[in-house]
Amino acid sequence: MFHILIADPISDEGLDVLVDNENITLTKDTGLTPEELENRIATFDALLVRSQTKVTRSIIEKAKNLKIIGRAGVGVDNIDLDAATENGIIVVNAPNGNTNSAAEHTMAMIMSLSRKIPQAHSGLKNHKWERSKYVGVEVKNKTLGIVGLGRIGTEVAYRAKGQRMNVIAYDPFLTEEKAEKMGIEYGELEDVLNKADYITVHTPLMKETRHMISVDAFRQMKDGVHIINCARGGIIDEEALYDALVSGKVAGAAIDVLEEEPFQDHKLLELSQVVATPHLGASTVEAQENVAIDVCHDVQKHLTGDLVKNPVNMPSVPSDVLSQIEPYFHLAEKLGMFLIRLTEDVPEEVNIYYSGELADVKIAPITRNAVKGLLQRHLGSHVNDVNALYLAGKKDITIHENRTSTTEGFTNLMTIELKSKSGTRSVSGTLLNGLGARIVRVDHYSVDMMPHGHIVMIHHQDLPGVIGKMGSLLAEHHINIATMQVDRSDIGGDAIMILTIDKNPEQKELEALKELEEISDVTAVDL
Ligand SMILES: NC(=O)c1ccc[n+]([C@@H]2O[C@H](COP(=O)([O-])OP(=O)(O)OC[C@H]3O[C@@H](n4cnc5c(N)ncnc54)[C@H](O)[C@@H]3O)[C@@H](O)[C@H]2O)c1
Ligand SMILES: O=C(O)CC[C@@H](O)C(=O)O
């Protein structure tokens, strides 16, 4: 049974996705204080939030069962992503569902600023008919500067063009060709600041964008510029904006978001040239349904073992690519689990070689599963594909991915090589059409074994009678051999025997095998 805590108001249309699942329980408890959330979170498998709830490191560290945090919206600046990743908790968002609403809200803010609609409305509500006080300006032929031309910025650009505005935009991913295709002007940040009559920001809030519009940026703007922030508080330096409004440099500002929310007492709100809404960009029926449905689908997928569509702290995999590579996840994890048993030393470097068909697919998710298999022996079951690479880095294990053309006759071949102080060990596997995964090489020995069950790997000398002795010894301990593979380097030289047996061998049984003089090493692996 999975328990989901809904900590912010999430649309029922989304929750309906989860309600019908009999393995899921939903607890709605909105408006919890950080301390209350910290005290409650331990029993939950999933947490659903919007922008209000701050999911801090201390909350995440108390969340011993948490597997997924669903953010019904775009911005994830209210979630400590590093803490989530370190703790193997996947974070998903709903990046597409509120794009239109945020863009429409931005346009409404631009029009409100230009025609002073909120101020005039307030006047009338206070029984004042003040037509001359609220003379506005047209937006037609004015220049709108967009900082951040992603999903919302792009939609704002098209809407502004519909209002006959000129649009200039800055985004690190915007090219001149793309700008030309959109019928807008391409600019550096400086060009946008210099040329625009209205400046609207649509970047995420990150280290790089915090206070990107500050004193220096205001200095570069036209006198009488209008500023709009429907993205995130913190992108604009609020002190600098306040001063620029008071000095008249900025004619008006429209604000949906501020650094501290809720913000009913902020000094910017005291200025008559500021219009503001309480973080309403995504607050439409449509947007809330869309984001709730998207995020709830992903939460359900993750809890039932499927890959999610909108991961934030893991690369996403398009479904056509996923169907190609998913069958290799199991093979990769088992190869990793097997290989780590071949050394008692601290792993230092891992090389993963992808050959044949595997050389042409997206390998990163396969690598994550291999590393997960490797690390689980020492780090336990909290290693998962969200934190596997992070944890490997923390343990100073370097991971290299290589694509090669050496297929050794297989249509696909994956080899993992593990380097440690005592040397290099390796294991190779393949996926046989219709037959599933096979381990086909252990170090330089060829084998053919299914990667599951109780496996005993024995290094011995290639001499007559060894196999018989070993078989009798196992029989004495009532151990039944299910399959056996043997390979050798030379006649009479080193040889390997891999058995699958019907029960987990006890330590004393392994010790008894080691006592046979022809046997140099015995390793048990449970896959
Ligand atoms: N007010 C609201 O209710 C509301 C609703 C939805 C989204 N948002 C906010 O809007 C932001 C944008 O949403 P989106 O869906 O368009 O995201 P997006 O990822 O599609 O677009 C963000 C764009 O910003 C660009 N960018 C990043 N750093 C930049 C920089 N230093 N300078 C210029 N551009 C930069 C990126 O390249 C990207 O194209 C979200 O992060 C969220 O915080 C607010
Ligand atoms: O939760 C909300 O309504 C705000 C969402 C918005 O800020 C976002 O980043 O998607």
Automatic annotation (TrEMBL):
ACT domain ranges (all copies) = 455-527
Q: Which UniProt keywords apply?
A: Amino-acid biosynthesis, NAD, Oxidoreductase, Serine biosynthesis
Q: In which pathway does it act?
A: Amino-acid biosynthesis; L-serine biosynthesis; L-serine from 3-phospho-D-glycerate: step 1/3
Q: Which reaction does it catalyse?
A: (2R)-3-phosphoglycerate + NAD(+) = 3-phosphooxypyruvate + NADH + H(+); (R)-2-hydroxyglutarate + NAD(+) = 2-oxoglutarate + NADH + H(+)
E.C. code: 1.1.1.95
Tell whether Chloroplast is among the UniProt keywords.
no
Q: What class of enzyme is it?
A: oxidoreductase
Q: Does the keyword Iron apply?
A: no
Q: Which GO terms describe its biological process?
A: L-serine biosynthetic process
Q: Cite the GO molecular-function annotations of the record.
A: NAD binding; phosphoglycerate dehydrogenase activity
PROSITE patterns for the chain:
ACT, D_2_HYDROXYACID_DH_1
* Family annotation (Pfam families): 2-Hacid_dh, 2-Hacid_dh_C, ACT, PGDH_inter
Q: List the NCBIfam families.
A: PGDH
Q: What does this protein do?
A: Catalyzes the reversible oxidation of 3-phospho-D-glycerate to 3-phosphonooxypyruvate, the first step of the phosphorylated L-serine biosynthesis pathway. Also catalyzes the reversible oxidation of 2-hydroxyglutarate to 2-oxoglutarate.
Regarding protein family, the annotation reads: Belongs to the D-isomer specific 2-hydroxyacid dehydrogenase family.
What is the name of the protein in this document?
D-3-phosphoglycerate dehydrogenase
* Organism the protein comes from: Lentibacillus salicampi
